[in-house]
Amino acid sequence: MALISMDNKHCGLCGNAFTEKEKVVKLPAISDVTHELYVYFDKTLHSKCFEKWSERNSAVEIIQKEKASFHQSSYYTKTFKKT
User: Fold this and answer.
1) Across the strands, what pairs with 26?
2) What angle do CA 29, 35, 41 make, to 5 degrees?
3) By residue range, what is the domain housing residue 67?
4) Residue 80 — pLDDT band, cuts 50, 70, 90?
5) Looking at the chain, which runs of residues are DSSP E strands?
């Protein structure tokens, strides 16, 4: 479960405010600040907006690559991986 800051009151895609009952998606931060989709990461989005987003598959792929890269990092290995 992602923690959502109270500062995130508007969807990063449509710009509309969140209501209490709406489902939301929190995209994680990514390391590549030059990526064309960087501005959408570390944002909260309406679930319905995320599902309809034309770049959804690309965003999911980026998240998977970032996760794989992190799991292969020396930081992860030293800190979390049990031998």
Assistant:
1) 44
2) 25
3) 1-83
4) confident
5) 24-26, 44-46
Residue that is written with structure tokens 């489902």 in the block: 23
- State pTM to two decimals: 0.78
Tokens 């990461």 correspond to 41
Tokens of 46: 């309406």
Number of domains in the chain: 1
| Burial of residue 62 (number of CB atoms within 10 Å: 0-12, 13-18, 19+) | buried
CATH of the domain at 69: 3.30.40
| C-alpha dist (Å) from residue 11 to 46, 66, 67, 81 | 6, 23, 24, 35
Which pLDDT does position 76 carry in this prediction?
A: 87
